[in-house]
Amino acid sequence: MHLDEIFFRIMIYLLAAVVSVPIAKKVGLGSVLGYLIAGIVIGPFALGLVGSDGEDVMHIAEFGVVIMLFIVGLELHPGMLWRMKRLIFGLGGMQIGFTALVFALITALFWLDTAQAITTGLILALSSTAIVLQTLTEKGMLQTRGGRHSFSVLLMQDISVVPIFAIIALLANQVVTDSTTVETADTVSGWYQLLIILAAVATIIIGGRYLANYIFKFIAETGLRELFTATALLLVIGIAVFMDAVGLSPALGTFLAGVVLANSEYRYELENNLEPFKGLLLGVFFISVGASINFDLLLNHWMLILVILTILVGVKLIILWALGRLFKLEQSHNMLFTFSLAQAGEFGFVLITFATQSGVYDEFTSGILLIVVALSMLITPVLFIVNEQVIQPRLIKSSIQDEDEVEDNGHPVIIAGFGRFGQVLGRFLNANGIKLTIIDNNPHNVQYLKKFGYKVYFGDITRRDMLEAAGAGHAKVLAITMSERDQIDKLVALAQKHYPNLKLIVRAVDVAHELALQNIGVDGHRQAIFDSAIELGTSALVAMGNSNHQSYRSALTFKHLDKRFMKNLQQRYSIDDPHFLMETKKFAEHLENILLMQQKHPYQEMDCAWDTDSLIEEAREYNEQIEGR
């Protein structure tokens, strides 16, 4: 391949990503589906801009998986595995076992022999780590209960790839042949392949355990970050080349290397250096998956492929839902868990290729399975959309029918939303003897908080009847602490229209929202992270040797001036005004000068009362001197 052809390929991939992904995200499809559609468009069976036979496309795709799985492996440190052992080995193990068994039985009823059925069951039991983690992270769902359960199952699936390779190698000698001689040769070949796998795995484990840290230490001592990045890439590519040379998947080798290095002191440096490559290469991987779909085979056998795809997704949905119920996942989280993992995974490509090379699959079977795996990954973003747009709203609607009947106890403060932010506010007001009426629209959160003694009512307070029932007609303050801006704005408009005497204290989601709230005359507003960030900054000043009083005074000055600045700025400019940025920069310089002058200002003797830690230390030293006499 000439240099100009290489540059042309790179340009096509980047252009496809730049054009398709923003459009897909704009219409709510997500980046993953955008990459997949881009791959179909530029692939050999559409425009034919890349991969005339699909083989070179899959080479690029496999390297995307290589980088991704190395980073996934780095996250599998023993401490995390032990903390999540119930979900990883319990839920994840049951998912792999049950799903593989069901698919093995189903495929054995059709045209596949025993070895092929077992291999197919194991391959289809896996889900897409790349797509699921990318999508959950983009949507902010990875830290939910459904997201954590999905992550645990994906970890177990990644771990299980090693034994699956070994099982396929053992099954290779079970392929039916016409000659006893050939069967004996296949048996020898299968055992020989297993020995190669064990030797390669042992080499990676020993090298990663005993040699890698010395190499990284030597490189780190040079102080050249780009050299460390080059070393990290060299490690990944070197292992990929080594695994390919012995006839194994490069993705498997780099995944194992990541696991081995998970406890290394250079783990985070490796992650930080490879992270910039991760997103780009995952995009290349998704584009390659779309480009690899063989539409000739798809058009000739579309009915068979559609049946297999339907069975794949349907069976996995049923099994995942049942396991979620078994592990006591609430309905909304269980549906997220179920719809997240209902596809086949990127490991399917390398496992199907390995099974074909080992003689387990013929070309037709492997071709059909490759298309099914690719299509199942292609429809995954659609499954997420179905869950979000169809399933979750119905669950919320059915929950609303069971809304609590709010008791109007005449409390002066109503809190709308009782998540982490609202709970801190509620505890503070309770400690000051203020009685509260608390409304939250998350039924699971309501049930959980009731265990701690909170009287929280379930309901949608953005409806006037619910707000009226909560006592808005005579309450003094409505504290809006919800996290969704559209819900906050809807409730503010409702309260201002029907309850003008009600003071509104509102959580702002960002600077733009805070300015908007200021424009409509909200009584009190503050960004959720502002004060906590200032508190941490105060602690940082103390940690660097500043006195408690000096640090606290700087924080108060910063808050006071920032409040005045925001008020003045809002009166003069909108956030989209180019002068807004210019005035913000001027304010930052002005604020810095004020705080520096303040640090030089002499303290009064009474200011030392703030520095109780210093006084305690002085008292301790004084007592030691007295005892020494």
Walkthrough of the structure:
The chain is mainly alpha-helical and 629 residues long. It folds into two domains: 319 residues, Na+/H+ antiporter like fold (Up-down Bundle), CATH 1.20.1530.20; 204 residues, Rossmann fold. It is built from 28 helices and six strands. The chain has a six-stranded parallel β-sheet, with helices on both faces. α20 links the parallel β1 and β2. α8 crosses α9. About 2% of the residues have low confidence.
Mean pLDDT: 76
Rg from alpha-carbon coordinates:
30 Å
Q: CATH topology of the largest domain, what is it called?
A: Na+/H+ antiporter like fold
Number of domains: 2
Uncertain regions spanning at least 5 consecutive residues: 176-188
CATH architecture term of the largest domain: Up-down Bundle
Tell me what portion of residues adopts beta-strand conformation: under 5%
What is the oligomeric state here? single chain
Short description:
The chain is mainly alpha-helical and 629 residues long. It folds into 2 domains: 60-175 and 190-392, Na+/H+ antiporter like fold, CATH 1.20.1530; 410-613, Rossmann fold (3-Layer(aba) Sandwich).
